[in-house]
């Protein structure tokens, strides 16, 4: 399948303080090009009574959303205000044009599914050795339909109390004359029909926790990260795409001068070694900040990280 190009910067919808991506093309692009995984939280329409396999939208961690915005790959859109202003300003011609596009897609989908059903039926008949009989019966059905049509036409010529009004064509009862009912397509994205919102930053950067410097530091070195709640840490760190690799680190971020219990390091090291991973702890060195710019020269600079493994005595 050919990749659909994604134009940067792409929009990130802000809904109830959650950062979401609704376009599957943007989801795959962010994962492939920017090492952004996120978490799928949507229900699959055909498997709505389970929550093991989920679909779009993709929820981003605040760290992921901020990283994309800071690097110029995305921008934040207030979803509610964008939809209100977009639909109120939409003209009648734009609405009708969008409805025609949806109707066309529905007819194409219905026709495609009908062809697939006919192919499956034909294959099933071939497996049972009934394909020849089905082909022989089809002309008989057409002949019967033609005879019925002629009989109806002859009867219609006679005077009857139930005559059709003049000028009304006699119906022909054939399978091909039945109109194919189009499917009703529910669009998964709002652009179109809504115009793409302006890329000028109108919202502030996403608020991130104090672990963001560690996240940016690891991301700049090509790692993939997912939420680490399952293992009691901040991030689960992968050397590549999580669909291809096992995680290597259980990462926990801390402030540079933050005090912590030594037993937390022991527990993290034992847990990491027990699940065939290393426990990683890191933070930003505040003394390495650039005094002229008031911050780091690059996202993730000034961070030091230490990996810990537990070895039995």
From TrEMBL:
What does this gene product do?
Constitutes one of the two catalytic subunit of the tRNA-splicing endonuclease complex, a complex responsible for identification and cleavage of the splice sites in pre-tRNA. It cleaves pre-tRNA at the 5'- and 3'-splice sites to release the intron. The products are an intron and two tRNA half-molecules bearing 2',3'-cyclic phosphate and 5'-OH termini. There are no conserved sequences at the splice sites, but the intron is invariably located at the same site in the gene, placing the splice sites an invariant distance from the constant structural features of the tRNA body.
Q: Which family does the similarity line name?
A: Belongs to the tRNA-intron endonuclease family.
Region feature (Disordered): 109-149
Q: Where is the composition biased (Polar residues)?
A: 135-149
Organism listed in the record = Glonium stellatum
Q: Which Pfam families match?
A: tRNA_int_endo, TSEN34_N
Q: What is this protein called?
A: tRNA-splicing endonuclease subunit Sen34
Q: Where is the composition biased (Basic and acidic residues)?
A: 115-125
Q: Where is the TSEN34 N-terminal domain?
A: 11-79
Residues annotated as domain tRNA intron endonuclease catalytic: 211-284
* SUPFAM superfamilies xref list: tRNA-intron endonuclease catalytic domain-like (SSF53032)
Annotated signal sequence is: none
């Amino acid at each position: 399948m050919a990749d659909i190009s994604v134009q940067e910067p792409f929009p990130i919808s802000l809904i109830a303080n959650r950062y979401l991506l609704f376009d599957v093309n943007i989801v795959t692009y962010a994962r492939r090009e920017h090492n952004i995984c996120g978490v799928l939280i949507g229900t699959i329409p055909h498997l709505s009574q389970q929550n093991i396999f989920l679909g779009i939208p993709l929820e981003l961690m605040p760290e992921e959303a901020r990283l994309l915005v800071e690097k110029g790959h995305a921008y934040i859109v207030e979803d509610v205000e964008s939809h209100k202003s977009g639909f109120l300003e939409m003209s009648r011609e734009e609405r009708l044009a969008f409805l025609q596009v949806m109707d066309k897609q529905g007819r194409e989908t219905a026709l495609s599914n009908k062809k697939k059903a006919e192919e499956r039926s034909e294959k099933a008949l071939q497996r049972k050795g009934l394909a020849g009989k089905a082909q022989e019966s089809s002309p008989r059905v057409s002949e019967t339909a033609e005879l019925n049509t002629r009989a109806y036409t002859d009867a219609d010529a006679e005077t009857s109390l139930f005559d059709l009004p003049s000028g009304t064509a006699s119906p022909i009862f054939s399978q091909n004359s039945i109109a194919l009912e189009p499917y009703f397509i529910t669009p998964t994205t709002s652009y179109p029909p809504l115009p793409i919102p302006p890329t000028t930053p109108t919202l502030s950067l996403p608020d991130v926790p104090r672990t963001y410097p560690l996240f940016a530091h690891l991301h700049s070195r090509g790692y993939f990260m997912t939420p680490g709640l399952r293992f009691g840490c901040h991030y689960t760190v992968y050397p590549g795409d999580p669909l291809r690799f096992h995680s290597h680190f259980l990462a926990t971020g801390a402030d540079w001068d933050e005090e912590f219990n030594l037993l937390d390091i022991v527990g993290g090291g034992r847990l990491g070694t027990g699940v065939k991973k290393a426990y990683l702890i890191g933070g930003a060195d505040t003394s390495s900040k650039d005094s002229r710019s008031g911050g780091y020269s690059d996202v993730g600079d000034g961070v030091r990280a230490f990996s810990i493994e537990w070895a039995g005595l």
